[in-house]
Design goal:
The chain has ten helices and 25 strands. It is of the alpha+beta class and 497 residues long. The structure holds zinc ion.
Length: 497
């Protein structure tokens, strides 16, 4: 490897902190980490299945019935950073007991002065009370099992000037986790909500929103003086007179990224439109992103099942982390800035990582605060699988550079509240998580490992998984003794029978 390229890779190693974000933008690039050349103890065996599949057309598990529908009329003034929204939520009581309350989770309220609540109305609404980002609505009369109710929420956003997934910069406006949602509920454990965790360095540790599979319809109107806006979104927009219409069934949320500077490129691949939205100086990298994404979609089609949506948008982000959303990925400009036409670059690591989340996060949900390893460990290990298949000569480099150089420690089943903040979280969940999956694969063998991974993803599509689902899938394909391995990596090792 050329020394200069190696130095560049070192200098942005912390940009590999996929799926994290800062509560406030960092003042400068993170300190380079210089010592990570120790090779992994044992190199993986590159035998990812590569045979073409002649499977019949994909039939995913039945979608949940009576799922929540979000319908949003959105007006955006890009130049004024102002958004006004009329949102209707249709919610079904899918439990077997009457519900007397409904919880709204309002993520924008984490940003002071960003969210202004207008009228909330509905046939059954009584009192409401706000607590942090939660608004509890009482229902009068109670919502009976199987019955539905519709509420209308009017709100406006004054977007914060911050480089992040929610806010605006002079390069773009990002709308991720930007409207009220109703979190998962079950009678035994109540509403599934988590607090956002911010560590001592003001870095947000992981994610906190667990969301059901729901349906989204959105109509976006642009107003104000901004010209030549390009809109990236979680699904394909259909131009209508005066607005753009979007539909996205069976997703966890709906996100948008808008810029007056985006350059777009696209390819059609296996029925999917893969589209990149990059800033003008990143044109060349945009093509590279498409190539990596095309390979990654092929790989995950075999690992899990073919990507079931029509579009996948990969968007340059004017901030220094990366984030997955349904149908759309935000890839840090810091990663794209350093793209060079060589396999050893961070695009090759992070694009497959973020694409894996289209399955493990979006199609197969999990609680990202309580059990983040269920998506992040596999997302990190997906990077190794990508190198194993497409850049096998550099797989050892991946393990040394991405994992072993950090000498990771910590329990794989840590939560986002792990002592030590973001760094401890990354080391335990992402890096030790990848080591755990590699060790598991070596223990049970490739056939069982990949069959279990496929089964875990397929059988749990549209659900919210727990570790029980993961280890059930493993047990379906292997009766190997996992006790020692689980004790090595898990603080609370599951007991497998
Ligand atoms: Zn991730």
């Amino acid at each position: 490897m050329r020394p200069r390229l190696f130095a560049l890779i070192i200098a942005i190693s912390l940009l590999l902190s996929a799926c994290s974000q800062r509560a406030t933008p960092p003042a400068e690039l993170p300190t380079p980490i210089a010592q990570f050349t120790r090779p992994p103890e044992k190199l993986p065996n590159p035998t990812l299945p590569t045979e073409p599949t002649n499977a019949p057309e994909l039939e995913l598990p039945a979608a949940p019935e009576n799922r929540t529908m979000y319908d949003l009329d959105v007006t955006l003034d890009y130049a004024q950073h102002a958004v006004s929204v009329v949102q209707r939520v249709t919610y079904f009581n899918r439990t077997d007991t009457a519900m007397s309350e409904l919880l709204l989770l309002v993520p924008p309220r984490y940003f002071a002065g960003a969210y202004f609540q207008g009228n909330i109305s509905g046939d059954m609404l009584g009192q409401s009370r706000e607590d942090g980002i939660q608004t509890m609505l009482s229902l009068e009369p109670a919502l009976q099992p199987g019955a539905s109710t519709q509420i209308q929420i009017i709100f406006t956003l004054t977007l914060p000037n911050r480089q992040g997934v929610f806010g605006w910069s002079n390069m773009q406006t990002n709308l991720v986790d930007w409207f009220p949602i109703i979190p998962p509920f079950d009678t035994a454990s109540g509403w599934r909500v988590n607090e956002r965790v911010v560590d001592a360095t003001n870095t947000i540790v992981g994610e906190y929103i667990a969301a059901e599979s729901a349906d989204f319809n959105l109509r976006l109107r642009l107003t104000g003086s901004a010209q030549n806006l390009t809109i990236a979104a979680s699904s394909e927009g259909i131009e209508q007179p005066g607005f753009v219409e979007y539909q996205l069934p069976l997703a966890r949320s709906f996100s948008l990224s808008i810029s007056d500077q985006f350059v777009t490129q696209e390819v059609q691949h296996q029925g999917v439109t893969i589209r990149t939205y990059v800033f003008p100086q990143h044109r060349e990298a945009g093509q590279a992103i498409i190539e990596i994404a095309t390979n990654a979609l092929d790989m995950f089609a075999e690992l899990f099942y073919p990507y079931p949506r029509q579009t996948l948008s990969l968007v340059a982000a004017d901030f220094l982390h990366n984030m997955e959303t349904d149908g759309m990925l935000l890839i840090s400009k810091g990663v794209i800035d350093f793209y060079r036409d060589a396999p050893l670059n961070n695009l090759t690591i992070l694009v497959p990582h973020e694409i894996s989340h289209q399955w493990l996060y979006s199609l197969v949900g999990n609680d990202p605060a309580r059990e983040p390893w269920l998506d992040e460990a596999f997302a990190t290990y997906s990077e190794a699988l990508y190198f194993e298949r497409f850049q096998p000569d550099h797989l050892a480099w991946w393990w040394a550079n991405r994992v072993e150089g950090f000498e990771p420690s910590g329990w794989v089943d840590s939560t986002t509240s792990i002592p030590g903040g973001y760094t401890a979280y990354r080391d335990a969940v992402y890096l030790n998580g990848a080591k755990f999956l590699q060790s598991l694969r070596e223990l049970i063998g490739d056939d069982a490992f990949f069959a279990a991974a496929r089964e875990f993803a397929f059988e749990n599509t549209y659900q919210i998984v727990s570790e029980t689902n993961f280890f059930s899938a493993i047990r379906m394909h292997s009766d190997a003794d996992l006790d020692a391995l689980l004790r090595q990596f898990f603080e609370n090792p599951p007991s497998l029978n």
